[in-house]
Amino acid sequence: MRLMIIAGGMRYPSGSGRAAAFIRQKAGKLSLFDQIDLLDLGQNPLPLWDEGVWQGEEKWRQILTPLRERMQAADAYVLVSPEYNGMASPALKNLSLFFDERTTGHKPALIVAVTSEAHNGQYPVADLRAFGAKNTKWVFIPDHLIYRDIGQLINENLQMTDALLEERTLFGLRELRLYAEAMKDVRNRHSFRTEFKYAP
Ligand SMILES: Cc1cc2nc3c(=O)[nH]c(=O)nc-3n(C[C@H](O)[C@H](O)[C@H](O)COP(=O)(O)O)c2cc1C
């Protein structure tokens, strides 16, 4: 089973990047997944979608072929989204324009929202749950995580100061692993009759 963690921050370094690194460390220690891939969109920005994607431009082929392979290889995802202006990260939304259910479909995803504030973080969760799955067909698992006050919550040595939230993180990863197992059967039995209109 392979896990892909996607950090949706649009700068580097970032709070969401640190959260993603923390989750990678925890997932590694749990040994739930055989492989863990971390894509930090702040460190490796993906250009904004443009018409050249549909024209099959060489520039896009070079970017998308290896990226699709990485995305395709995953059995489960952790989507780490910063809260930007009360929304999920536009970088994550942009990423989702390039793929449809042939790559991400019927695979479980754990949403992790990150904010530097003491009270926000619910907006990226609501945004992704409402608008993140129609074409990707990600299956968001019932639990999600909100990392508030990220500067204090996870230090530079990737230690979390909130033991309960750390426990919740491990719980979420275990739950994600169970869904990854179960959804594999769904994918095997799915007839995939959708017309693939928008992704190359
Ligand atoms: C463009 C931008 C908009 C932001 N808007 C919000 C916001 O609406 N609510 C909030 O709680 N934090 C907001 N923040 C602060 C982020 O919560 C903070 O930067 C946090 O570390 C997650 O973002 P990062 O991964 O880019 O570091 C914003 C940050 C940026 C860069």
Task: Kindly describe this structure.
By secondary structure, the protein is of the alpha/beta class. The chain has a single domain (2-189), classed as 3-Layer(aba) Sandwich (Rossmann fold). Strands 1, 2, 3, 4, 5 and 6 form a six-stranded parallel sheet that branches. α1 crosses α8. β4 (107-114), α6 and β5 (138-140) form a beta-alpha-beta unit. The protein has helices at 15-30, 52-55, 58-73, 90-97, 101-104, 122-131, 150-153, 163-189, and strands spanning 2-7, 35-40, 76-82, 107-114, 138-140, 145-147. It is globular and about 45 Å long. 36% of the residues are buried. Helices cover 44% and strands 16% of the residues. It contains eight helices and six strands. Flavin mononucleotide binds at residues 9, 11, 14-16, 82-86, 114-117, 120, 150. Flavin mononucleotide is lined by residues 9, 11, 14-16, 82-86, 114-117, 120, 150.
What attributes characterize this protein structure?
single chain; 200 residues; Rossmann fold; 8 helices; 6 strands
Poorly predicted runs are: none
Number of strands: 6
Structural class: alpha/beta
CATH architecture: 3-Layer(aba) Sandwich
Q: Please bin the fraction of helical residues.
A: 40-55%
In CATH terms, the superfamily is Flavodoxin domain
How many DSSP helices?
8
The multimeric state of the shown protein is: single chain
The CATH class: Alpha Beta
Strand percent estimate: 15-25%
List ligands, each type once. flavin mononucleotide
What sort of overall outline do the alpha carbons produce when their principal axes are compared?
globular
